[in-house]
């Protein structure tokens, strides 16, 4: 194992940051949504922007499997199926689009969209508006943006969180539906990372084996924390963290 670790030539501080990133990945997949921006920034700091997506994708799939097993009984399939087709199209667009635009410019545009949507959601919350958006433009728009941002930056969580909050999903239904959605999408993305972007290699898989325990630990800790959070507090937490994440992207 020590020989395997030494071949990646990372400093102790880089290993610490990488393990913190995958711990937070497991933590987020347990239901503590909205911290995807932090995970992406930590992993990009160690491995670089595009390369880090290849390091993350197999670990995300493993974490998705844990989330699906734990929360599957709460999945709202009708809502998932409304979002999934547009999200698949978004991923395909992201595969093509990802090489032709500045990563910083793309993230700034995305941050503006997230902030605008969060402001609208906060306004709805303050008005105690209990209505649920039924317009297909809303679900398709959120699905498309989720797919594009998922492929380019692994940052789809903000848009799917906004969508599920708008659908007024309770905590466990929110987490269970998101778990299956991202498992399907991340498995769909994997071949593009292997054969098109070539960001998943034998070396990154070996690196995943070293980082994998951090994902498990993060998931187990997160599950215990989620149990303590009530539905209303969960909605406010997701809105707050999503807004802060968008600001981090915008200013980063």
Automatic annotation (TrEMBL):
<feature type="transmembrane region" description="Helical">
    <location>
        <begin position="77"/>
        <end position="98"/>
    </location>
</feature>
<dbReference type="InterPro" id="IPR052017">
    <property type="entry name" value="TSUP"/>
</dbReference>
<keyword id="KW-0812">Transmembrane</keyword>
<keyword id="KW-1003">Cell membrane</keyword>
<feature type="transmembrane region" description="Helical">
    <location>
        <begin position="16"/>
        <end position="47"/>
    </location>
</feature>
<feature type="transmembrane region" description="Helical">
    <location>
        <begin position="144"/>
        <end position="166"/>
    </location>
</feature>
<comment type="similarity">
    <text>Belongs to the 4-toluene sulfonate uptake permease (TSUP) (TC 2.A.102) family.</text>
</comment>
<dbReference type="Pfam" id="PF01925">
    <property type="entry name" value="TauE"/>
</dbReference>
<keyword id="KW-0813">Transport</keyword>
<protein>
    <recommendedName>
        <fullName>Probable membrane transporter protein</fullName>
    </recommendedName>
</protein>
<keyword id="KW-1133">Transmembrane helix</keyword>
<feature type="transmembrane region" description="Helical">
    <location>
        <begin position="178"/>
        <end position="199"/>
    </location>
</feature>
<feature type="transmembrane region" description="Helical">
    <location>
        <begin position="105"/>
        <end position="124"/>
    </location>
</feature>
<feature type="transmembrane region" description="Helical">
    <location>
        <begin position="205"/>
        <end position="226"/>
    </location>
</feature>
<dbReference type="InterPro" id="IPR002781">
    <property type="entry name" value="TM_pro_TauE-like"/>
</dbReference>
<feature type="transmembrane region" description="Helical">
    <location>
        <begin position="233"/>
        <end position="251"/>
    </location>
</feature>
<keyword id="KW-0472">Membrane</keyword>
């Amino acid at each position: 194992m020590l020989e395997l670790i030494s071949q990646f030539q990372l400093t102790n501080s880089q290993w610490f940051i990488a393990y913190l990133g995958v711990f937070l990945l497991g933590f987020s997949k347990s239901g503590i949504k909205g911290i995807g921006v932090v995970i992406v920034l930590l992993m990009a700091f160690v491995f670089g922007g595009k390369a880090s997506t290849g390091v993350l994708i197999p670990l995300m799939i493993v974490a998705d499997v844990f989330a699906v097993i734990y929360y599957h009984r709460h999945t709202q399939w009708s809502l998932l199926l409304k979002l999934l087709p547009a999200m698949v199209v978004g991923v395909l667009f992201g595969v093509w689009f990802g090489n032709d635009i500045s990563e910083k410019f793309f993230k700034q545009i995305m941050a503006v969209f997230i902030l605008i949507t969060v402001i609208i959601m906060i306004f709805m919350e303050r008005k105690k508006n209990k209505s649920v958006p039924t317009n297909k433009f809303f679900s398709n728009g959120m699905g498309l943006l989720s797919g594009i941002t998922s492929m380019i930056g692994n940052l789809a969580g903000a848009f799917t969180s906004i969508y599920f909050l708008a659908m007024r999903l309770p905590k466990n239904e929110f987490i269970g539906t998101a778990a299956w959605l991202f498992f399907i999408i991340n498995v769909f993305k994997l071949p593009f990372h292997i054969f098109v972007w070539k960001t998943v290699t034998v070396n990154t898989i070996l690196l995943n084996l070293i980082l994998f325990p951090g994902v498990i630990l993060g998931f187990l800790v997160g599950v215990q924390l989620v149990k303590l959070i009530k539905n209303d507090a969960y909605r406010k937490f997701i809105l707050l963290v999503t807004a802060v994440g968008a600001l981090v992207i915008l200013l980063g």
